[in-house]
Amino acid sequence: MSHTSPGGEARPAAESTSPPRRWVWGVLAALVAASLITGWVLLSQRGDKGATAASSPTPATSTAPSPTSATPTPAAATTLALIADFGNCGPGAQRVADMIDTWDAAAVTTAGDNTYNDDPTCTPFTDSVGDFYGDWVEDPEGPRFWPALGNHDYEDKGAGLEKYRAYFTYLPTEADPQQRWYDVKVDGIHLFILDNDAPDADLAAQQVWLRERLTASRAQDPAAWNVVIFHKPAFTSASHPDEVEMRPDAGWDYRGWGADVVIAGHQHVYEDVVVDGMHYVTAGIATNGLERGGCDDELTDGSRLCLTGVEGAMRLDATATSLKMEYRQPSDAGEVVLDAIELTR
Predict the structure, then answer these.
(1) Domain that holds residue 98
(2) Which of 1, 119, 266, 329 has the highest CB neighbour count under 10 A?
(3) Which residues pair with 105 in a beta bridge?
């Protein structure tokens, strides 16, 4: 057996028991150097792997700053136009329609009387609606016009439920096969359209349906604003009597079921009546030439404002935390805000 010296010279094994001192010190120096290099490499490797590679089983606490939470982007507002008592093909109807066209609204909804028989050249629905809001009815991406039935839609010459349905073919049939009441979600606003001129049995059916749908909407989509619409107002200061069959004491627990506001038409006035914290709004007239008796000298209990004979439309702007409702009138200077209601949560 032999060893190789640093110079490469082979020696017999017996000679290795007494090596020269210079050779021993050389070996020791080489071993120390190798140990230092090995330790440096191990330390470097541990540093590359991070603090969790240390021998301690407890993970080290990171000293890096925590990322800051991004501010949520607010949901875009939903804008909706609401009109009532407009279907006479008058110049005022065009002024209101032109004003609405500037709003970039998601949809238009009505509180009834989509036609009148004042002008024999104004064909019910085809002209009274189509000449002013046809682009909303026939939008290539889907209809954006959601009407309620009024008494003139039923009664006027050339009108009637059959003609109404023939024009508004797209209205939902899930609630009522005759499309008289239904609900539709327009972004952040949920519309519940009723027919207060329906027979008593159908009114009772609508009451059950509305309770179920409002309750479900509030549970499943609590951020939505629930807007109930029908033609004849339950509370009013104008010439026609109140539609007492649509009041809470007749079984319509709008507030308890989850409605945020109730809107009607028929009276050709704009009015806001507040009863037990609920706003019952009469939505004015969306044309000219249909003025009638107007607001009584003595307003009904809860009425905060009543405006007679002012053509205009309601603009609804909804976010997750507010619903702003303004009654706006077209003018040569643009438009005038005549009233504003804001609900917040």
Answers:
(1) 78-344
(2) 266
(3) none
Q: Cα angle vertex 239, ends 236, 204, to 5°?
A: 55
Rounded-to-5 percentages of helix, strand, coil across the chain: 30, 25, 45
Residue 9 lies in a domain: no
What pLDDT, on a 0 to 100 scale, did the predictor assign at position 12? 36
Q: Is position 53 within any domain?
A: no
Q: What CATH number does the domain containing 123 carry? A: 3.60.21.10
How high is the pLDDT of residue 22?
36
CB 332 within 8 A of CB 319: no
Tokens at residue 221, please?
């989509």
| Chain CA centroid to CA 340, Å | 19
Report field, pTM of the whole predicted structure over 0.85:
no
């407009």: which residue's tokens?
A: 86
* Number of independent structural domains in the chain: 1
Residue 5 lies in a domain: no
* pLDDT given at position 296: 92
Task: Decide: 217 and 190 in contact? Cβ < 8 Å.
Answer: yes
Residue 279's alpha-carbon distances to 105, 247, 304, in angstroms, are 22, 12, 10
**Quick one: what percent of the chain has pLDDT higher than 90?**
73
Q: How many other CB atoms are there within 10 angstroms of residue 338's CB atom?
A: 15
Tell me the Cα Rg of the chain.
39
Cα–Cα distances in angstroms (integers) from residue 169 to residues 132, 146, 159, 179, in the given order:
18, 11, 15, 9
Between 290 and 182, name the one with better pLDDT: 182
User: What is d(CA 53, CA 43) in angstroms, rounded to the nearest whole number?
Assistant: 11
Place 239 in a pLDDT band, splitting at 50, 70 and 90: confident
CA distances from 96 to 201, 307, 324 (A): 36, 17, 19
